[in-house]
Amino acid sequence: MRPLRSGILLHITSLPGGHGIGDLGPAARRQVDWMQRAGLDAWQVLPMTPIGEGNSPYSGRSAFAMEPLLLSLDDLHADGLLARASVRRDKALETGGTKYAAARRFKSTRIRTAFDTFVAKRRHRSAPFRRFLATHEHWLADWCDDQPGDANEHAFVQFMLDRQWDRLHSYAAERGVGFIGDVPIFVHADSTDVRKRPELFRLDRNGDPSVVTGVPPDDYCANGQLWGHPHYHWATHKRQHFSWWIDRFRLAISRFDAIRVDHFIGFVRLYEVASDAKTARHGVWRRTPGRLLLEVLQQKLGDLPLIAEDLGEVTPAVHTLRDDFNLPGMRIVQWGFFGDHSNDLPVNHPSRCVCYPGTHDNDTIRGWYRSLPRQAKARFNAITGCERAADAAMSMITLCMSSPAECCIIPMQDILNLGSAARMNRPGTPRGNWTWRMSSHAPISIARSLRPTVDHRSRMLPRQ
């Protein structure tokens, strides 16, 4: 994998468009074009698996399938499967945040029409479609069988998603842009994986989780975060030589140039809470066979292009595991202006890490700056030279780009200098998240202001 130096954090659903949600079509390619002009070479996305409870991409309904709403109707038209009239922009869906329910209503009938045309043109008998079915049979059959309606239509959707993603990935690669994916450590209790492979999870006799996942209280949430996902039955995974994990990471590696492993600390220990708990305040940590799992993955898949999300209740064992597999960790610069978090300031970053001003779980820089306590704000101003909220985002971006980290990723909201209303997620808040979406004209307006920062970084860290 070639080195990725600097880029953006932007989920596909946040792209603009006239169908209620971002997708893998023209807006994604325009985003790549803008990145090329701005001198950026890394695009990090959130998990692209089927969304679960609260429209969260981290509560996936499958560890393998892709979210059907990401399918581009415009590209289905370009493939001759939809009439032009059926993909015209809907003004009610073009503006504002992501509209999951409305987008699903708008797209579902059109996707069904595209499938009917696909069959009528006998493309379901084509070599590419048959090859896709054979290659992905180990998960595709279960996914299609587990969904309501026509299983063949669900297979068609996954086939077209795979094709559209391959086109976007190739389009980006030709322009020097690589993709960083995101693999959550857990899947949802209502996922196909849990229903079809119950032996892999700790379930009771009714098929419900016997204990659930979460994290203890922290700065984000006084009651902790109760995720509610089932824990793994690690003894079964060992007996099966981690075959489910191998399949999962093999597919992820085929889709992305690098992969952020969400909740990497779970490869050392995981926090479990009683299944009937109302909060995550009371739970216990249990050790996991993460080292053995990573050893098996490395044996089967070669060098692992992973980024370790080594955040949260980190122990020395987490750092040891990360370093033993030569994985870059993460540094969140927002945290560096508080208490004993000075290691998060760029001046203290190791080269083997990825630098972020904040992640999808943090406030935007402009919103963060407005809410800073006086002492932290004074420290930020002294280090960056910032004097007002309107300049905070670019001051932070410039600071992050000065990091010796091998890669720097900036949330798109911060590049656009947006306030707290553009925040993607508020941990511990079950509703109202994952809805921020870009204006269709936003990227072009700020490309010129970003370029000097990227040029500065290019002089510091030349392409290898």
Description:
The chain has a domain at 184-305 and 314-325. With 464 residues, it is of the alpha/beta class. Residues 454-464 have low confidence and may be disordered. It is 40% helix and 12% strand. It has an 8-stranded parallel sheet with strand order 9-6-3-2-1-12-11-10. A 4-stranded antiparallel sheet has the order 5-4-7-8, with no helix packed on it. The chain has helices at 26-38, 73-78, 91-94, 100-120, 127-135, 137-146, 151-174, 192-196, 234-239, 243-255, 290-301, 316-324, 365-370, 374-384, 389-401, 412-415, 442-460; strands at 6-9, 42-44, 178-183, 211-215, 225-230, 258-261, 269-274, 284-287, 306-308, 329-332, 353-356, 407-411. The chain is globular and about 65 Å long. Helix 5 crosses helix 6, helix 10 packs across helix 11 and helix 15 packs parallel to helix 17. It contains 17 helices and 12 strands. The longest helix has 24 residues, at 151-174. The termini are close together.
